[in-house]
């Protein structure tokens, strides 16, 4: 009697284990299948619309052929400006947190706030820049778009800079101090060099993050049907054009939206793969 | 005898003291410059760190400032009124708040168990050589921009749900009292349920990667002891790993929730943008972020704009609380691991 009870308990435990481990397999397959499904449709729809015209022609009016040149250039320009503003600010702030004030109260507060900014809804950033820039200047502009992207860049760069500088061994700092280097030179000549790969990774991740951002651009840079590099006027960007074209009833526009989506995804995936390889190199070396 | 080219000792001493005055002046100058440079750099970095705080402060102040007209007009009733009429300028936030909360709940109900199971797979079952590729693949899901989820959801996922899944759900739950209410109405394809499902896919990598990291931080001795007692893999995961990693998992879940609440573009594509509260999950609805994204550029009149900014303020406050709680939990966890 006892033996059968024991073996039935054993059997039920094993059954439960098999079921739950099956579920773990199924969950992983479930998660991976979304990646495959999304990428497959994207590649299929995107590549069928990909042609040279996409990179050489302007966005068309509905019903005619055209390309995505102006939104691609607009996105590149605004992303570049955002990185140029956001990266120095982020690196300096991260430097303070890791080097000068590692145990300060200020650092603790900034770290906490920065982590919240890191995952704050990006549409709120758009509203903020709208209030501060667009409403004050009285018109939508490429500058406002670039600034709202920069606000998203800063927390990413702060976080990676701080993390990477903390990983730099203190013996390097002590060696620099022992030959009489002041702290600022020790940071710029020794610590930055030791942490360079990680900091570059952070900037790449930030670029990957903002190149797909749509929400903060909707009411800062707005959109522009025509070729314009005037940053004081609305500037087209790839994500906003995708948004507008995908929700339109015109088949040509929807096709272009898919192509644009493919371009963005490939760019983002390439950036994150480069970033990962850099980070992996740092670990092995 | 004096070696050629070498001055006598006495001269060296004299010359040495003669040069040292000029040298010391130089030296003092250089040191002074370095000291100034150091102080300047220190203040520069400090200012940059404070700028991060200013950004957050600026966001809060500008949102409060922008939403003042709406809040002054509607007062606290803005939070529970369900009217949203730009023509008569009557605005209430409850429909978008409802949509935001319900889509996030659907997302978390799916993403949390699936994410935990994937984390179990990655830490307990997966062969070593497969761990990195699978982990990276799941994290790539987090890297795909949200607008891609949106366009995919609109053109692929919503039609699929409309044709295959939703008629099935309606037929399946049509007879069951409570569920028939949740799954009532025609299959639109787009709606609250679709948005919730897309959010689940987007949140999944966050839950997975944080759960995996905290699972990996469980001391192997604990697991080995449990295995040594004859526990099955499931029992080890459920009764040893999960309780030990609880705080971290909850932190990761909250982080994912923060993301789900604030997600804009993917939801905007598939939610249907209808300002009403419907019991059915299949009906179109709206969320705070989708409302702002859809209507902000077309908003005419200060009150309309202000009402939308007030929605943004509500969203920011909700996500701020959720994210702050998540960070506090993860910080407590780190302190424990460190100490």
Question: Can you describe what's shown?
Answer:
The complex is a heterodimer of chains A (285) and B (339). By secondary structure, chain A is an all-alpha fold. Chain A is 79% helix and 0% strand. In chain A, helix 4 (105-119) crosses helix 6 (142-167) and helix 9 (196-211) packs antiparallel against helix 12 (251-284). Chain A is flat, with a radius of gyration of 25 Å. The mean pLDDT of chain A is 89. Helix content of chain B is 77%, strand content 1%. Chain B contains 12 helices and 2 strands. Chain B is flat, with a radius of gyration of 31 Å. The model of chain B has no long low-confidence stretch (mean pLDDT 88).
Q: Short summary of the structure?
A:
The complex is a heterodimer of chains A (285) and B (339). By secondary structure, chain A is mostly helical. Chain A contains twelve helices and no strands.
Helical residues, percent of chain A: over 70%
According to DSSP, the number of beta strands of chain A is: 0
Count the DSSP helices of chain B.
12
| Poorly predicted parts of chain A | none
**Greatest interface and its participating residue counts:** A-B, 90 and 91 residues
List keywords for this structure.
A: 285 residues, B: mainly alpha, 77% helix, flat
Write the layout of secondary structure elements.
The complex is a heterodimer of chains A (285) and B (339).
Chain A: H1 2-49, H2 52-56, H3 69-100, H4 105-119, H5 122-137, H6 142-167, H7 170-178, H8 183-194, H9 196-211, H10 215-218, H11 238-246, H12 251-284
Chain B: H1 9-74, E1 84-85, E2 90-91, H2 94-125, H3 128-143, H4 146-173, H5 177-182, H6 192-216, H7 220-228, H8 233-244, H9 246-262, H10 265-270, H11 288-295, H12 302-338
Antiparallel strand pairs in B: 1-2
Helix pairs in contact in B: 1-12, 2-6, 2-9, 2-11, 3-6, 4-6, 6-9, 7-8, 9-12, 11-12
């Amino acid at each position: 009697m006892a033996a059968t009870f024991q073996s039935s308990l054993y059997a039920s435990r094993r059954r439960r284990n098999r079921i739950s481990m099956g579920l773990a397999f199924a969950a992983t397959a479930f998660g991976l299948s979304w990646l495959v499904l999304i990428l497959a449709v994207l590649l299929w729809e995107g590549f069928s619309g990909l042609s040279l015209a996409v990179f050489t022609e302007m966005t068309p009016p509905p019903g005619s052929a055209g390309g995505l040149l102006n939104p691609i250039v607009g996105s590149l320009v605004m992303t570049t400006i955002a990185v140029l503003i956001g990266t120095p600010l982020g690196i300096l702030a991260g430097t303070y947190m890791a080097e000068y004030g590692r145990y300060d109260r200020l650092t603790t507060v900034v770290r906490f706030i920065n982590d919240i900014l890191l995952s704050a809804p990006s549409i709120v950033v758009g509203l903020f820049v709208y209030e501060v820039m667009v409403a004050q200047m009285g018109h939508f502009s490429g500058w406002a778009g670039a600034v709202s992207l920069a606000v998203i860049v800063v927390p990413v760069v702060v976080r990676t800079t701080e993390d990477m500088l903390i990983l730099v061994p203190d013996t390097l700092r002590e060696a620099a101090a022992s030959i009489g280097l002041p702290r600022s030179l020790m940071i710029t000549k020794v610590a930055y060099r030791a942490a360079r790969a990680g900091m570059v990774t952070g900037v790449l991740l930030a670029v990957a993050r903002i190149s797909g951002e749509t929400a903060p651009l909707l009411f800062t840079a707005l959109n522009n049907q025509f070729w314009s590099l005037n940053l004081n006027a609305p500037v087209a960007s790839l994500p906003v054009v995708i948004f507008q074209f995908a929700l339109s009833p015109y088949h040509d526009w929807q096709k272009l939206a898919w192509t644009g989506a493919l371009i963005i995804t490939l760019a983002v995936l390439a950036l994150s793969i480069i970033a990962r390889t850099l980070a992996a190199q740092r670990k092995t070396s | 005898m004096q070696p050629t080219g070498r001055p006598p000792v006495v001269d060296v001493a004299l010359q040495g003291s003669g040069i040292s005055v000029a040298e010391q002046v130089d030296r003092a100058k250089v040191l002074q410059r370095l000291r100034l440079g150091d102080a300047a750099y220190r203040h520069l970095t400090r200012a940059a760190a404070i700028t991060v705080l200013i950004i957050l402060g600026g966001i809060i102040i500008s949102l409060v400032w922008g939403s003042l007209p709406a809040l002054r007009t509607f007062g606290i009733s803005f939070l529970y009124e369900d009217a949203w009429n730009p023509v008569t300028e009557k605005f209430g936030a409850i429909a978008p708040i409802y949509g935001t909360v319900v889509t996030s709940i659907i997302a978390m109900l799916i993403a949390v168990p699936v994410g935990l199971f994937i984390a179990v797979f990655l830490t307990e079952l997966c062969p070593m050589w497969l761990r990195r590729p699978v982990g990276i693949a799941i994290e790539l899901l987090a890297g795909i921009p949200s607008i891609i989820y949106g366009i995919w959801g609109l053109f692929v996922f919503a039609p699929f749900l409309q044709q295959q899944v939703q008629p099935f759900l309606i037929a399946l739950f049509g007879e069951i009292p409570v569920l028939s209410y949740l799954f009532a109405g025609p299959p639109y394809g787009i709606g609250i349920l679709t948005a919730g499902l897309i959010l689940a896919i987007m949140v999944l990598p966050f839950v997975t990667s944080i759960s995996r990291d905290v699972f990996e931080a469980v001391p192997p001795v604990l697991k080995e002891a449990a295995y040594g007692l004859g526990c099955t893999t499931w029992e080890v995961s459920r009764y040893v790993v999960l309780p030990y990693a609880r705080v971290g998992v909850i932190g990761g879940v909250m982080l994912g929730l923060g993301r789900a609440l604030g997600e804009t573009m993917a939801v905007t594509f598939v939610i249907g943008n209808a300002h009403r509260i419907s019991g059915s999950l299949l009906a179109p609805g709206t969320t705070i972020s989708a409302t702002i994204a859809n209507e902000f550029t077309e908003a005419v009149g200060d009150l309309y704009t202000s009402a939308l900014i007030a929605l943004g303020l509500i969203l920011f406050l909700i996500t701020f609380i959720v994210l702050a709680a998540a960070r506090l939990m993860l910080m407590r966890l780190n302190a424990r691991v460190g100490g």
